Amino acid sequence: MSAQLRPPKAPAPPEQSTDPQQHLGKPDAGWRAEVYEVIFESHTPVGRAFDLALIVAILLSVLAAVLTSIEKVARDHHDWLIAAEWFFTILFTVEYAARIVCVRRPHLYIRSFFGIIDLLSILPSWISLFVPGAHVLLDVRILRLLRIFRILKLTLYIQEYSMLGAALVASRRKILVFLSVVFLIVFLLGTVMYVVEGPKHGFTSIPTGVYWAISTVTTVGFGDLVPKTDVGRTIASFMMLLGWGILAVPTGIISSEIAHQRGARLMAGRICARCFTQGHEETARYCKQCGKALPPVQS
C-alpha cells in the first residue's frame, strides 16, 4: 500500500521583534551601535538607567519652566533659572542629535511622534533668542514623559492607548455629525433666547445668546447671563435636561467602537496551531479550516 500523502506543513508565522524602534535601523557595529543601545534599548541596564535619568531631567526642566512663571521666584532666582533652562536645552539638544545620528533611517525618527515631541521640547529656548517670551512654551516637555510607558514596559497601557486612538479615528464621522446637530440646536435656541430675553436682560446679540446656550447645554453655567422671563427659564430648563443626554452620546459612540475593536482583536488573535488560520469567532471551539481545537479566548 502506498504511503498516504500528507499536505505540506504550513510555514510558521514570522516572529515579531520585541524592539519597538527596530524600524529606525540599528547600526551593525561601532560607536553608533553603542549609542543606539544606550538611547533606544531600554531593556538593557545601561539603557534603562539612561531613560530613568532622562525622566528626571524632563521633570526638573518642567519644574524650572514653572518656577520661571512665578514672579517672586523668577526675580529672586533669575540667574539660576536661566542657567537651568539653558542647561536642559543644551542637554536635550545633544540627546536629540544623538538619536538622529545613531540610527540608519533618521528621517523616520524625525517624523515620528516622539521625534516631533523631542524637537518641540528644545525649540522654544532657541526661538526665544529671537522672539522674547517664547520660553513659556517649555511646558511642552511634559509630553516627553510619555516615554515612561516604554521604559516601564507597560505594554498593556500602550495597547489600550492605541485602541482608544483607533476608536476616536473610526468614530470621527459620527462625532462630527453629532457635533453639527448640537451646533444647530444651540444656534437656534440661542437665537430664540435673544428674541425672548432681549438686550434688557443681557442678551445683546445672537452670538451672546449662542454663548449662553453653549454654556447651558454643556452644564457649565457661568452665571453671567441668567434668563429673567418665564419663557426664558422654561427654555433654559429644557436645555439643561438636554445637556445630560448630549454628554452621553459621544461616550456611547466611542465605547461602542472600542467594544467592536476589542472583539475584532480577539477574533484576529485566535490562531490555529496546526494550520495558522486566523479570524475565528470568539465562541468557536475548533478551527474552521482543519478542525483542531482552538486555544481558549484570553480577555
From TrEMBL:
<keyword id="KW-0633">Potassium transport</keyword>
<keyword id="KW-0630">Potassium</keyword>
<keyword id="KW-0631">Potassium channel</keyword>
<dbReference type="GO" id="GO:0001508">
    <property type="term" value="P:action potential"/>
</dbReference>
<keyword id="KW-0472">Membrane</keyword>
<feature type="domain" description="Ion transport">
    <location>
        <begin position="48"/>
        <end position="262"/>
    </location>
</feature>
<protein>
    <submittedName>
        <fullName>Ion transporter</fullName>
    </submittedName>
</protein>
<keyword id="KW-0812">Transmembrane</keyword>
<dbReference type="GO" id="GO:0008076">
    <property type="term" value="C:voltage-gated potassium channel complex"/>
</dbReference>
<feature type="transmembrane region" description="Helical">
    <location>
        <begin position="151"/>
        <end position="169"/>
    </location>
</feature>
<keyword id="KW-0407">Ion channel</keyword>
<dbReference type="GO" id="GO:0005249">
    <property type="term" value="F:voltage-gated potassium channel activity"/>
</dbReference>
<feature type="transmembrane region" description="Helical">
    <location>
        <begin position="80"/>
        <end position="98"/>
    </location>
</feature>
<dbReference type="Pfam" id="PF00520">
    <property type="entry name" value="Ion_trans"/>
</dbReference>
<feature type="transmembrane region" description="Helical">
    <location>
        <begin position="110"/>
        <end position="131"/>
    </location>
</feature>
<keyword id="KW-0813">Transport</keyword>
<feature type="region of interest" description="Disordered">
    <location>
        <begin position="1"/>
        <end position="26"/>
    </location>
</feature>
<dbReference type="InterPro" id="IPR028325">
    <property type="entry name" value="VG_K_chnl"/>
</dbReference>
<keyword id="KW-0406">Ion transport</keyword>
<feature type="transmembrane region" description="Helical">
    <location>
        <begin position="49"/>
        <end position="68"/>
    </location>
</feature>
<keyword id="KW-1133">Transmembrane helix</keyword>
<dbReference type="InterPro" id="IPR005821">
    <property type="entry name" value="Ion_trans_dom"/>
</dbReference>
<feature type="transmembrane region" description="Helical">
    <location>
        <begin position="176"/>
        <end position="196"/>
    </location>
</feature>
<feature type="transmembrane region" description="Helical">
    <location>
        <begin position="235"/>
        <end position="255"/>
    </location>
</feature>
